[in-house]
Amino acid sequence: MEEKSWIIEIAGIPFDATVCLMTILTCVIVFSIVYFCSRNLQMKPKGKQNVLEFIVDFVKGIVSDNIAKKDVNDYHLLGFTFFMFVLVSNLLGLVTKVVVFPSETSYWKSPTADPLVTLTLALIAIILTHYYGLKKQGPKNYFVNSFMKPTAILLPIKIIEEFTNVLTLGLRLYGNIFAGEILLTLIANLGASSPVKFILAVPLEVIWQTFSLFIGAVQAFIFVTLMMVYLSHKVEAHEE
């Protein structure tokens, strides 16, 4: 049975309250993690500071693998922000997905289990790559390097590619997270159907939620990696 989101209307306009609230919660969690882990920083990091520095260094590694070393610091914070938001969004619904009382309406899910959210994230990411490309190279050099090289014949394909990048970046993330939540819901509904099935469902739920932790992290990694690849194509001049 497919769960429906909690829809409310404001001034006659329908809003997905589930997605809105979960997105706000994601932002609060990300801010809280960074704020808590960055208090009382020390030269010799330990405990919570180690956690934050590990994530910062990990994202910096992603950026440096795709962007010229001299420009890494310019885009590091961008990559870190997207990574944290996507990671927390993924885990919020996958790892905590426990259905005790099956219902047609879902009040708790990953924001990234909604295609509008993932496509919006992808669109923002692609728009930012164009913005930084224009800022770094100027309009003329940006257009030539991004759309006219290695040959002007590829211009129509390059333009179409910008739209396909949004679709593939957004739908890849959505598909993985949505499929994970559907499977977790099916397992939970199986356990709720009878005591015998509940015994079988508990280990399956634990195993899949553990796997979901890995999936959520991998999808955040892939999203930021592809974003940095697209960004590198816009900010770096292509040699003839």
TrEMBL record:
Recorded topology in the membrane: Multi-pass membrane protein
Any GO BP annotation: proton motive force-driven plasma membrane ATP synthesis
Cellular localization per UniProt: Cell membrane; Membrane
Any one Gene Ontology molecular-function term assigned to this protein's record: proton-transporting ATP synthase activity, rotational mechanism
Domain of life: Bacteria
Transmembrane segments: 6-36, 77-96, 116-134, 173-191, 211-231
PROSITE patterns referenced in this protein's UniProt entry, alphabetically: ATPASE_A (PS00449)
GO cellular component, one term: plasma membrane
UniProt KW keywords: ATP synthesis, Cell membrane, CF(0), Hydrogen ion transport, Ion transport, Membrane, Transmembrane, Transmembrane helix, Transport
Family label: Belongs to the ATPase A chain family.
NCBIfam families for this protein: ATP_synt_6_or_A, PRK05815.1-4
Purpose: Key component of the proton channel; it plays a direct role in the translocation of protons across the membrane.
Protein name: ATP synthase subunit a
Biological source species: Vagococcus hydrophili
